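Need residues for this backbone.
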């Protein structure tokens, strides 16, 4: 009942692979319609009351009208995500770019997003940088990091007290040799330099294979520096698939490590071929079930087994919770939140998808392109 998930405005828009973008009928034409879709996900699931925004993808002339639109639909604005990866000026990086004029431009965008967040009532800057180099020798790695810390320091100094700074890492893509914030350690060290309101954001698609993500979660949580998540799932790289679709056990273990102190929980998905609203609903339902299962772990028995050094008892206690069918409990929780017992069936019966397809068609938005 307490779970709250932020869904991403960009997850409702068209996205694609390197090879093609398939336009879907009914895809939102602007941020107002993206918010309408987010409201539909919240109506069905009861636990998606916030929508994370991406700028300039979600830029509007009247931020007050945008905020009012969200609030009228029972939503609040979640994290603000500045975009420093599409402007041609950022070809060699944004806040690590060797050219001071480009770094100035990038930092100004970050500062602009602080003001946008203020006006929208958002309490977080969620930062991901595509910065990195593709070849050894392309740039000075230490100098790039120093430039980055400089720009982030200026941003942090401008943050109002209600806003936190979330720093996301990713090992590769689009840079293929050295990403400037490649792992949790690189992000954490930067956060420690910046200040208490700087925290690490863990995106489940941003690790090399074999990385124990739940252990990273435990470590950052213990250090008080776990800022939040970008939930999605992957088989190979940063696939941005539906949460819990490939590795539901990992998702359960992450919630187990979180215990009852939940940080900001955001979905970060790209729906290339699947129905977008339904994909988001399924992700929220999968999050609800993973969390419910984690709440079922008998922590007293677990502590006793661990104290006794009983290797498999603790493991069995986790499996016991994971194997419990929580679907009816979650359905009841949703019903008491005023949402749907079976959100996918309710979505399909509601005619919402057909309605938006008829109203919005497949028109390309004025701005067009990825994430919009
Ligand atoms: C990146 C990263 C960011 C997201 C962009 C669209 O890989 O996950 O969080 O904003 O994709
Ligand atoms: Mn992400
Ligand atoms: Mn990603």
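Answer:
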């Amino acid at each position: 009942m307490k779970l709250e998930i932020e869904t991403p405005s960009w997850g409702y828009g068209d996205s694609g692979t390197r090879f093609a973008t398939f336009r879907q009928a009914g895809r939102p034409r602007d941020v107002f319609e993206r918010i309408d879709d987010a409201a539909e996900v919240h109506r069905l699931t009861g636990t998606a009351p916030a929508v994370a925004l991406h700028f300039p993808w979600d830029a509007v002339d009247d931020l007050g009208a945008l905020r009012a639109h969200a609030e009228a639909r029972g939503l609040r604005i979640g994290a603000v995500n500045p975009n420093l990866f599409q402007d041609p000026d950022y070809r060699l990086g944004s806040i690590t770019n060797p050219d001071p004029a480009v770094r100035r431009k990038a930092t100004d965008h970050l500062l602009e997003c602080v003001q946008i967040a203020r006006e929208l009532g958002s309490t977080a800057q969620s930062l991901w940088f595509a910065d990195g180099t593709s070849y050894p020798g392309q740039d000075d790695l230490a100098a790039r990091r120093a430039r980055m810390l400089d720009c982030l320091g200026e941003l942090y100094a401008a943050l109002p007290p209600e806003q936190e700074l979330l720093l996301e890492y990713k090992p590769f893509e689009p840079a293929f040799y050295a990403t400037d914030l490649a792992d949790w350690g690189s992000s954490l060290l930067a956060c420690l330099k910046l200040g208490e309101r700087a925290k690490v954001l863990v995106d489940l698609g941003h690790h090399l294979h074999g990385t124990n993500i739940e252990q990273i979660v435990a470590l950052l949580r213990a250090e008080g520096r776990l800022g939040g998540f970008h939930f999605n799932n992957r088989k190979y790289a940063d696939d941005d698939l539906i949460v819990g679709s490939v590795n539901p056990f990992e998702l359960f273990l992450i919630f187990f490590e979180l215990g009852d102190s939940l940080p900001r929980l955001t979905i970060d998905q790209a729906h290339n071929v699947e129905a977008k609203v339904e994909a988001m609903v399924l992700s929220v339902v999968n999050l609800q079930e993973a969390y419910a299962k984690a709440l079922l772990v008998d922590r007293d028995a677990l502590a006793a087994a661990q104290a006794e050094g009983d290797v498999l008892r603790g493991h069995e206690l986790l499996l016991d919770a994971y194997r419990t069918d929580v679907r009816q409990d979650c359905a009841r929780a949703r019903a008491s939140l005023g949402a749907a017992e079976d959100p996918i069936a309710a979505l399909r019966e509601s005619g919402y998808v057909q309605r938006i397809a008829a109203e919005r068609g497949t028109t390309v938005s004025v701005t067009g392109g990825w994430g919009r």
